[in-house]
Write a sequence for this structure.
């Protein structure tokens, strides 16, 4: 092949790549890859062979990608601005995965009686549920709100402890339908993310 023909072919290839670059700035699936696109295939195989559940896989992802805990002021079930910000992140994640179901656990520190702390823990869990629903999370996605009161502290102390005044959102299961054996559970989740990742974001107006 002559030098001029090689130059022409290389130039044409470069122009083609340049043209594509004008429309797309990332590969399809780059956000869903998590470092190796074989991982979703492996996880889906583990789900279908019963060696791991979809809820287990998604629980790992939830804790890796989303803050699951919010904290409260002493004696209060009112959401702080920081709590609302965290719940916004939770809600955005939860709405992406309508297959999943959640439980919200309410906790308190050790100040006060068991009975009053159980009531306060429940009010905190209910406040979180109401806020998530107001952000668009379907009612049916949250299976339960549960109070733990002062029984499961992060830091063991009899005094006031902000870290113990919290709620924790956990994945509690996956919706199942009688007519659907849920084959390809994780594959469907990843395929949805793969398609979404190829969508070019639009620049917001200045």
């Amino acid at each position: 092949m002559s030098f001029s023909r090689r130059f022409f072919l290389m130039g044409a290839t470069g122009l083609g790549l340049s043209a594509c670059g004008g429309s797309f700035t990332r590969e399809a699936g780059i956000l869903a890859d998590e470092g190796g696109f074989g991982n979703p295939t492996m996880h889906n195989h583990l789900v279908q062979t019963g060696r791991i559940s979809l809820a287990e896989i998604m629980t790992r992802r939830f804790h890796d990608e989303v803050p699951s805990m919010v904290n409260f002021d002493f004696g209060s079930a009112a959401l702080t601005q920081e709590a609302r910000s965290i719940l916004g992140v939770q809600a955005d994640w939860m709405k992406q995965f309508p297959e999943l179901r959640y439980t919200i656990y309410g906790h308190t520190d050790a100040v006060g009686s068991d009975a009053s702390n159980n009531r306060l823990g429940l009010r905190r869990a209910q406040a979180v549920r109401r806020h998530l629903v107001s952000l668009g999370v379907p009612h049916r996605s949250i299976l339960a709100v549960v109070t733990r009161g002062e029984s499961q502290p992060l830091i063991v102390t009899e005094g006031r402890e902000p870290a113990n005044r919290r709620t924790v959102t956990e994945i509690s299961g996956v919706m199942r339908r009688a007519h659907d054996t849920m084959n390809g559970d994780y594959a469907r989740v990843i395929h949805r993310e793969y398609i979404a990742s190829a969508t070019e974001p639009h620049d917001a107006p200045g």
Remarks:
- The first helix runs from residue 3 to 21.
